[in-house]
Amino acid sequence: MSIQIPRGTQDILPGQVEIWQYIENKARDISRRYQYSEIRTPLFEHTELFLRGVGDTTDIVQKEMYTFQDRGGRDLTLRPEGTAGVVRSYVENKMFGLPNQPVKLFYISQMFRYERPQAGRYRQFVQFGVEALGSSDPAMDAEVISLAMNLYKEMGLKSIKLVINSLGDKESRLSHREALIDHFSPRIGEFCSDCQSRLEKNPMRILDCKKDRDHELMKTAPSILEYLNDESAAYFEKLKKYLTDIGVEYTVDSGLVRGLDYYNHTAFEIMSEAEGFGAITTLCGGGRYNGLVEDLGGPETPGIGFGMSIERLISALAAENVELPISRSLDCYFVALGEEAKDYTVKLVQSLRDAGFSADRDYQDRKVKAQFKAADRLNSTFVAVLGDDELKENKISVKNMETGEQTAVGLDTFVQEFKRLQE
Ligand code: ATP
Ligand code: MG
What are phi and psi of 119, to 5 degrees? Predict the structure, then answer.
């Protein structure tokens, strides 16, 4: 019996991979324009990092981690998200001491979560994410949000929606926490066991529960926005002003809380509103995490970031029927007639490749007609035909497949003349 791919994973084959490369290039380019530098951290980290960095009341830590012991008995986990590893590296490499602050980083990396696989939900997926560390200016939040929104816009998505909220600072969250406990306590027995344990640990996470989302107490729960202290409210107002100034549209949803424990102030999500996108509409999630660096052993440092999966971006592109400008191009395909000509094309193919062109030839010992068909399938711009007769005359015939124009080119000056044909 043949072995199959593990559940929740996928092969990305030629034909599909060009879409991935296109998106990755776009992500790299926009990161460059916003001045974020790439960081690459290990695929696995000490399990302890995620317990502390993601938080032990989250779904990720409670149900989704790929945790294992290595042969030396160390507890390790395949990273389920990018922020904890980046912040670990930031602290370990003392990036808080770098002359250029804030430190702005991005990553494009595989993540692993043990989830129930479905459309848009994989066990291995790739996130593009950014982290800006060292600034508590709301303009930083606006920059991070606009980077994510502009990537989607530049990819050609139209039906996307930005939702923002403020989770306030510690003080605001504390008074909101009291209000939530008062609100849910009397009827907590009607909620799932997860919510029951969240009540004392982190009652805000009850609002994020997928099982109890339709419970009537959810709709009447006290809004965090009513508990923001003056400073937090002013911060949120500034963010909204900056977003408006740079033309990023948003809606405020006071029910938006992120799954991760370490967020404060700004929280945001970007959703697809495209018809047929399916049940899972969140493309990107992010927010501010001012306590995280300290929790992971660094100096008190504010931070903000987001994570978006490439898989869900690709689904959104498909739902909106966006055609990406991807062409698999071939500059020249060589058709050879006869043994000697075949031998000679080995050199010709090489000479074009050395000169920077893409070139290919037949390796299947195909008849001439089949070689032309291959050139056609590969969408070659030029087809160069070499027969033993031409070889004797030291010439090769090069046909421009777009115009049909045919040129006899000297074999000794082939590359130079081929270059001229491009003009
Ligand atoms: P969800 O509510 O969909 O489970 P989440 O809150 O777990 O999302 P985050 O941890 O904030 O998601 O991750 C950020 C982004 O990563 C999501 O908005 C989504 O684009 C993507 N993502 C999360 N889990 C998966 C997955 N299993 N497969 C593909 N993409 C995912
Ligand atoms: Mg999840």
Answer: -55, 130
- Residue 167 has φ and ψ, to the nearest 5°, of -95, 0
Nearest CA to 154 out of 318, 26, 285 is that of 26
For the chain, residues classed under CATH 3.30.930.10 are 17-169+229-319
With beta carbons less than 8 A apart as the criterion, state whether 144 and 286 touch: yes
Number of the ligand closest to the Cα of 210: 1
Q: Residue 262 pLDDT more than 80?
A: no
CATH 1.10.10.10, domain 17-169+229-319, yes or no: no
CATH code: domain 330-422 is 3.40.50.800
Question: Is the distance from the beta carbon of residue 349 to the nearest atom of ligand 1 less than 6 Å?
Answer: no
Q: Where in the chain is the domain with CATH 3.40.50.800?
A: 330-422
Q: Which atom of ligand 1 is nearest to the CA of 80?
A: 10
Instruction: Quote the CA–CA distance of 151 and 166 in Å, as a whole number.
Output: 23
Report whether residue 288 contacts ligand 1, using a CB cutoff of 6 Å: no
Pocket test for ligand 1, best of 58, 269, 312 (most atoms within 8 A of CB): 312
Question: Ligand 1 centroid to 11 CA: how many Å?
Answer: 19
pLDDT tens-digit map of 327-340: 778 999 999 999 99
Is residue 213 pLDDT above 90, yes or no? no
pTM (global) more than 0.70: yes
